[in-house]
Amino acid sequence: MDTPLLDTPYTVIDRDRLLANLEVHRQRTKKQGIAYRPHAKTHKIPELAKLQLEHGAVGITLATIGEAEVFVDAGIPSIFLAYPLWLTANKAQRLAALSTRADITMGVDSVAGIQQAATTLGETTIGFLIEVDSGHHRSGCDPRAVEPLAAALAAHGLRCEGVFTYPGHSYHPGATTTASSDEVEALATATAVLESAGYPVTHRSGGSTPSLHSTKDSLTETRAGVYALGDAQQLELQTMEMSDIALSVVTTVVSARGHTAVVDAGSKIMGADKAAWATGHGRVLGHAEARIVAMSEHHATLVFPESGPQFAPGDILNVIPNHVCNAVNLVDIITVVSKQGPPEQWAVAARGKNS
Amino acid sequence: MDTPLLDTPYTVIDRDRLLANLEVHRQRTKKQGIAYRPHAKTHKIPELAKLQLEHGAVGITLATIGEAEVFVDAGIPSIFLAYPLWLTANKAQRLAALSTRADITMGVDSVAGIQQAATTLGETTIGFLIEVDSGHHRSGCDPRAVEPLAAALAAHGLRCEGVFTYPGHSYHPGATTTASSDEVEALATATAVLESAGYPVTHRSGGSTPSLHSTKDSLTETRAGVYALGDAQQLELQTMEMSDIALSVVTTVVSARGHTAVVDAGSKIMGADKAAWATGHGRVLGHAEARIVAMSEHHATLVFPESGPQFAPGDILNVIPNHVCNAVNLVDIITVVSKQGPPEQWAVAARGKNS
User: Which of A44, A101, B193, B245 is the residue whose CA sits 20 to 30 A from A5?
Assistant: First the structure.
């Protein structure tokens, strides 16, 4: 892209690449024999969620009630809040209102959280999935200790649909296959515990983009989200390729020295994510060897190899954020480009809906 | 704070603490004999900029034209864009429009950038400051090489007001004093070069919050911004204390095990900043020994010392982002609390104005 459509920096989605990614995912999950319910916190865009449903998704996953309000307003019929929500009276009221308009399921990982939900929700059509820890050690209970949670749900007349986990420890080079095995084992353990205690398990939900390729059919559902747009972390983990990247930020070079260029996009449009194992703060579209070696709020410092190109102030480059979910959360509008038609603009309608 | 005002998570400013920080800064810069022009990218809030002007600021600093449009609309009369803007025709038109309503100065660090500005701006009242690199190695030219830039500004009839630098390498434990010396030296070198070539230097602008205490009076102006609100990075660098922190995020514990608690605030409200030297992803207000040991988009994992408190789901805690500038940029509204009166809400009016 030589002539920017807008004043830089701004975020773009390549719609053709996005649609190709959605089709690959549809085919892959079909082959694996599992349903998919993509985590829409990745994009927060109703238009994109609708494309995912058109490509076979059974619904979407979200983290907050505020996000769910946006997607239910946009007509999305089935939402899993994969989060151990602590339902205050106000949050329970908001969630109950949504449950009259869409199928809503939420996560729980403690008896206290279940008691709180029972107290504040009262009689409800909302379903529940018990979160188990498969090795990421964030939320989720020990898979061997799920029985008291199922008992608490039953005692309060709440519908338990099964178990879920997030194998977030897949976000480490070389760890994707191990994390996927941990995920399968944790879900299988929890399922066995529940079934032997007489609780049926209809859902076993897991998934992350890095562990997608090794996902086993012992899952009933994957919630991976990043696969749709891609980011520099997936390049680092070698789980996606440069040609799969559908989201980037269009920037202008503002300062240059030799093979180093400083562009006008920083952490306020790219996000500040940088895992300890990452080789940089992001990548450059079409320049596989280049790295973003430093980033501040409105500057990113790009280093190209000695044998590579040099740039001058005024040149336009597309940079790839490390973590697409946080990058999308920084902008209200994304420009969508396609070889098939004129640019569109999509509102990041659920941006900032943290509560 | 035991009863949250809103559904968590949400961002709060302690107005009493903020005003105390502004007063300390006024006294410090008065004693140092230098003007101050705080970087308002830290807060992006017109109400807060006005309080800074009431506390003696000579104007504000910003990074983008979009931010300047918001603050000029809010009546701020003097703005320095401390950034080597590449002025396309459209950006030049926007900046020229602002210059009819406020005093505008912008940064340059290359002859190419000056030629571009001269071409697109034409005759202008906008002033220019030459950016020099004092050791942060981001943008800015070599302080010994400023003469061609001053000559280019003069040749195009553009007004050169002096030199500026950002000693961003002050953001490292133990580096604040060295960075401050580097800053003084770079500005002095550039000034000597310009004055010996016959170019007067009326402004020598520098400053960062970590280097504030050692700022020398050879600067005419400091642009530090974080001092107003504080963040976990300043605690790590020991340049501010827990009692100075004016901004935090109110969160609910959603999952707990022993001395570990997971709260409902993650990188989508705290920002993902974590410098290599940081001891965690953020801090906990009032719990100096606690650390945020892991963070994802909607979860932060807090670890308290063995001798410290334990928390349960439903408990409320205030967490402190590592980098306040990026945390503020994630929310549209901030709740402002004070012992002197009822809560207010301030719009983060320049949030997301990246271009």
Answer: A44
Shortest distance between the Cα of A355 and any Cα of chain B, in A, equals 6
Is A112 touching B (CB cutoff 8 A)? yes
Question: Count of alpha carbons within 13 Å of A195, Cβ hemisphere only?
Answer: 11
Long-range CB contact pairs, B19-26, < 8 A, 24+ = B19/B51, B20/B244, B21/B227, B21/B228, B21/B229, B21/B230, B21/B244, B21/B246, B22/B51, B22/B52, B22/B55, B22/B228, B23/B55, B24/B227, B25/B55, B25/B212, B25/B224, B25/B227, B25/B228, B26/B55, B26/B56
A189 reaches B (C-beta below 8 A): no
pLDDT at B1: 45
Give residue-wise pLDDT tens across range B112-133. 999 999 999 999 999 999 999 9
Nearest by CB to residue B297, choosing from A41, A267, A332, is: A41
What topology does CATH give the domain B15-228? TIM Barrel (3.20.20)
Angle (nearest 5°) at CA A165 between A164 and A171: 150
Q: What is the CATH number of domain B234-347?
A: 2.40.37.20
Q: What one-letter code names the amino acid at B63?
A: A
Residue A298: C-alpha distances to residues A41, A188, A267, B62, B66 (Å): 24, 47, 7, 10, 12
pTM above 0.90, yes or no: yes
Nearest chain A residue to B93 by CA distance is A7
Least CA distance to B133: which residue of chain A?
A255
- Residue A1: per-residue pLDDT: 45
Look at A86 and B113 and tell me if their CB atoms are within 8 Å: no
pLDDT at A87 exceeding the cut of 50 = yes
Thinking of the domain A16-228, which architecture would CATH place it in?
Answer: Alpha-Beta Barrel (3.20)
Domain ranges for chain B, please list them: 15-228, 234-347
Mean pLDDT of B297-312: 96
Mapped onto helix, strand or coil, the DSSP state of residue A3 is: coil
Distances from the Cα of B197 to the Cα of B96, B192, B204, angstroms: 30, 8, 17
* Mean pLDDT calculated for residue range B246-266: 97
Inform me whether the C-beta atom of residue A84 falls under 8 Å from chain B C-beta atoms. yes
Interface with A, mutate which of B136, B262, B268, B273 (most A CBs under 10 A)? B268
The verdict on B93 touching A (C-beta cutoff 8 Å) is no
- pLDDT tens, B102-112? 999 999 999 99
**Angstrom distance (rounded) from CA A315 to CA A250:** 11
Name residues whose C-beta falls within 8 Å of residue A188's C-beta, 6 or more positions apart in sequence.
A204, A218
For A228-281, write each residue's pLDDT tens digit.
999 999 999 999 999 999 999 999 999 999 999 999 999 999 999 999 999 999
Question: Do B265 and B8 meet the contact criterion of CB atoms below 8 Å apart?
Answer: yes
Mean pLDDT of chain B: 95
Rounded CA-CA distance A9/A265 in Å is 6
> Would you tell me which residues 217-276 of chain B have a C-beta closer than 8 angstroms to some C-beta of chain A?
252-256, 262, 264-265, 267-269, 271-274
Set of chain B residues whose Cβ sits within 8 Å of the Cβ of A271 = 267, 272
Could you tell me the two tokens for A272? 């500040």
Residue A298: which of B7, B63, B252 has the nearest Cβ? B63
